[in-house]
DNA sequence: CATGAATGAGCATTCATTCAT
DNA sequence: GATGAATGAATGCTCATTCAT
């Protein structure tokens, strides 16, 4: 007679988070209103608070799960034996819409937008800063490990500090990702080729003098 | 009957813009209120509307003048004969606080914050998108010209497309600049050294295979 | 098909009423929420409505049973042959914490708070006004009867109208009880001694001129 | 051209305070809404916040000014040479509506209601508790001084501690004042006569044994 | 020029209550 | 009996903007 169904509850949470993601991408964390999120999620204003304690909590949950997904994907792509190839695969994955053109492009754009919003938010919201920093540290660690392994194999320059090199590479990749916002007129394919070149030259052994 | 003094008027506009910059850096474009800007600028709420038609207008004007300053500084630093040296100078200028430590660091952080905010805003505000894009295009043009000249002189790799290379370089620099937000624990000096290495390897002739 | 157990039902009602009492004392009738009462009573929000039709109904039931308890205690203490002694006993009972200091003091304070809240509520809620008035009339009747008996015995001034004197005495006692709220710094023991003096002088025969 | 008119501002504050008083008396501090106060004061919801920082601030200001008025009136009535006469005058002033029957009675009732509400609020709002306590302490001091003087003149019993006696008298008066809420059916005139008797017997010299 | 009074829509959040299970 | 999901109106408060002076 009395049951708590944690599965349904969790599913609803995810639904709301997705709706919130669409609203945040369109209007920003501050610009999106609770009522717009509720409309998008097709629930009443009051009911949202059975799932999240506050707007802040929604933002944090969304940032956290979003970054976890990114992390998982990155982790998967780093399985390659060659870090250069892995990075390039990751870049292409993150910046191109391969199949279901229209819909995917929207998701892509929304993800980039959320990413930049999180960075901006991190600058003034300590909770967000910590989420972003933890995620960044994790990803950096993964890449650093990969670089170290590759160094031992002689695939990449052995004089580079793996951690610092990872930091710089990820920053550069992020910067190039943001170009969609800054310079939407540039051809994505050409940018990615040039980025590949940059990465190869940076990492290739013997190029360090 | 006497006309307004256009010089004074322009000065007041600049004062307000500076005050707005401080508020926006602290609270974001949406988070900062007109009344807080007026307090900071020491004018009354109503009076602000003699200088700007709306909050939107303030945001746009601030973005525009802010980017013009950045542009001017970049232009000045690109005067060097060697683009690699120029870029590194620019990076250091943009990421370190040389003299009046405390105050400067605050300004630095505020500028970075505003920069990211503008990027985020550009994603949803077409007016902001155009401002950011125009500025980006200008800076990219400058750097591309410089790279082209250097290619002719044989200082850098001649196989690189100057425009694309400039785009990638600027993106990477921006990404590294944003690291302060993502990973505040990393040592700035080391990051800049690594970035220099990246740029050198990317541009140095003969490294292309 | 089996009927509800009226004993259990009544017990649950009492449990809820007690929980409600704690919440109301802490946050007031308006300030306490149904959900906080349900938490305190360890039942679900919806289930409460099997026992009470509305928040209003809870408030009224709580006021009624609370006053019935007060009434019973008063009735018991008025059993004494001498009304002066009885009143003083009642005052001490109502204003001091004899044994389990800490806990009792909390209960004391909560009761006083509820008492004042009821009075305030009575001013704008006719249902509450009637409850308070009925209770007050009953208690006043008891005391009046007692005074009348004592007058016949010559224990107290015979010129006093018993009903009016009872009203005034009860009011004064209530006022002194409320002093805990108004002037918490005053010593309770001394106040009670002074109140005893007041009562004695008021009632003692021959003091009327 | 530019003027701040503090007189007008202060007048508006008072207007709002009066409107708030009416709303609070009708619905209680918690029950009255900002929007109802604004309707009553004929201003917009937002504009109220130019005059008061919060609802809390309105409540406190209203309590403070209300008690100041009461204090002033009390002070004036205590000018009499005989404290017994003064107190009785005060009681009558506070509990009867002499002239403009209808309107005054409403004010009277509203004042009593607010008084009880303040006491209830003081039990859980420290700010209100302090306001009530400060006022109470002041009034008590006045009365104690008066009693002391009268003791020296031999007008009242010299064995009573003036401060405690003042506390008890004020409490009793308050309790009787609250009777309007508890027992509205009782005749006010008779109650006041009986209260006079109580006071006289309490204070008259020689009645202490 | 410059002020600050004034507006009214909008915000995040809370709450008493209902209902399907 | 008993649960917790669901509602939607209401609350205190903020804000960009306008306007009389």
TrEMBL record, chains A, B, C, D:
This is TetR/AcrR family transcriptional regulator. PANTHER family: HTH-TYPE TRANSCRIPTIONAL REGULATOR PKSA (PTHR30055:SF226), HTH-TYPE TRANSCRIPTIONAL REGULATOR RUTR (PTHR30055). InterPro entries: BetI_C, DNA-bd_HTH_TetR-type_CS, Homeodomain-like_sf, HTH-type_TetR-like_transc_reg, HTH_TetR, Tet_transcr_reg_TetR-rel_C_sf. It comes from Collimonas rhizosphaerae. Keywords: DNA-binding, Repressor, Transcription, Transcription regulation. The keyword Coiled coil does not apply. Residues 10-70 form the HTH tetR-type domain. Residues 33-52 bind DNA. It comes from the Bacteria.
